[in-house]
Amino acid sequence: MFFPINGQVADPLAIFRGEPMETVAVRKLSTDQKKVVIPYMTESGKVVNSGKARVIWPYACKAVSGS
Length: 67
Prior knowledge:
By secondary structure, this protein is mainly alpha-helical. It has helices spanning 12-17, 23-27; strands at residues 40-41, 47-48.
């Protein structure tokens, strides 16, 4: 894996929280603050749980029978 000098890595939790945060700041969050609803798109194109996040799970989700 390569990282640019003085580069930053996007923390997945921060991405789905909908706000830019450095990993150090994410580590300092309380357990409740680390609970994140991840937005996703169904196979039909409906976006679910979008909230204030600007990104969604990168794969379409298929409904499971019986749920």
